[in-house]
Structures are given as C-alpha cells and as structure tokens.
Amino acid sequence: EVQLQASGGGLVQAGESLRLSCAASGFTFDDYAISWFRQAPGMEREGVSSISIVDGNTYYQDSIKGRFTISYDNAKNTVYLQMNSLKPEDTAVYYCGAVLRWIKDWKFENYVWTEDEYDYWGQGTLVTVSS
What distance in Å separates the CA atoms of residue 21 and residue 28, rounded to the nearest whole number? Predict the structure, then answer.
C-alpha cells in the first residue's frame, strides 16, 4: 500500500522555524521526486519545493528561497522541509506528493509543479504563523 505521511505542522510566531516530514512507503523511492505543495485559505495549491531522490537535485519556488531547505533521509524514506524565518504568509496546509522523476522525454523543471502529474499525495499538515 502506497503511503505518504506528512507531519510536523503547528502554530509558530513569525521568525520561528518548523520542520515538516513526509514519510513514504509502498513504492520505489528512487523513481520519484518528492515535493511539498501548500494551500492557503481561499487560494489554489502551489508548489513550494521538490527533491529528486535519485540525484538529490532540489527545486524551490522564489517565494521561499533562502528560507526553506528540502532534504531526504534515504534510510528512513523520509523527506524533510526545514522552514526558517517563517512569515504569516506561509500559513497554509502543506502537502507532500510524489511525481515520477522521468516522464517520456519531458524536462523535469517543466512539470515539477504540475499537480496532475503527481501519482501520490499525503494528507496535509497545517502550518500557522502568527504575526
């Protein structure tokens, strides 16, 4: 059974940090990239960060560059999102998803933030940043 288990959300004040975890099981980890998306109230879900498991390449949206760091522990099949210097606008439900690292001859950067290409999703974890 495929599972993506997201955890680590909570309530913090602006400027503080949180680390989200996404524990994966039931599929071949190396074939995928694991990404974090977030959905703020009243907004569409947006991609935040992604990591390609096989080569460790990382991808970040401009809004969080320099503040968030994505990493993975292969032994634990877990991807982490370290979020520092949190801002109220980071408040959202954060989801992790898994997308194939190679689809036909597509360039990964062209579909990494396309939700329809994702095979698996975890449940969300709520991050609330107070001002």
Answer: 18
